[in-house]
Design brief:
The strands form three sheets. The protein has a two-stranded parallel sheet with strand order 1-2. It starts with 6 loop residues before the first strand and ends in an 8-residue tail after the last helix. Helix content is 27%, strand content 19%. It is of the alpha/beta class. It is globular. The protein has five helices and six strands. Strand 5, helix 3 and strand 6 form a beta-alpha-beta unit.
């Protein structure tokens, strides 16, 4: 059996409160969150929060990457907490079934300006290359 540890921006209690009136979410099934990213000064870097338990053999990020403002920095943080032979598994939405269906694809070149600008939150700029100004 695997030793699974959960990371989220919010604690279990906060998540349950957030989804208390959402009929699509069974709040009783929300697991205990082992590492909470939000702190008094905002969201802390993943690597800072989970470092005491690192390194990990696997990191599974389910429907996370599309919410990350700086994907390159986030991937670097994951590299910091993975074993040298560790694996990252990304579960991403199927674009055909989202509101992004008509948006252009994001390329690696589109992500680079986000690393320079260090946004605190995702925006249209982090997912739409045509709107990103050249540095």
């Amino acid at each position: 059996m695997a030793d699974v540890q959960y990371v989220d921006v919010f604690s279990r209690d906060q998540l349950r409160a957030n989804y208390a009136n959402d009929q699509n979410v069974s709040a009783d099934r929300i697991p205990q969150i082992d590492f909470v990213l939000s702190g008094p000064d905002g969201v802390r870097p993943l690597s800072d929060v989970v470092r005491p338990a690192a390194p990990f053999e696997w990191v599974v990020a389910s429907h996370v990457v599309e919410h990350v403002p700086d994907v390159i920095a986030w991937l670097a943080q994951i590299a910091e907490i993975l074993d040298d032979d560790g694996r990252l598994l990304l579960v991403v939405p199927d674009r055909r079934f989202t509101f992004d269906i008509l948006c252009p694809s994001t390329t690696a070149g589109c992500l680079r300006p986000m690393t320079w600008e260090r946004p605190a939150r995702p925006s249209e700029l982090s997912t739409t290359c045509g709107a990103v100004p050249s540095p």
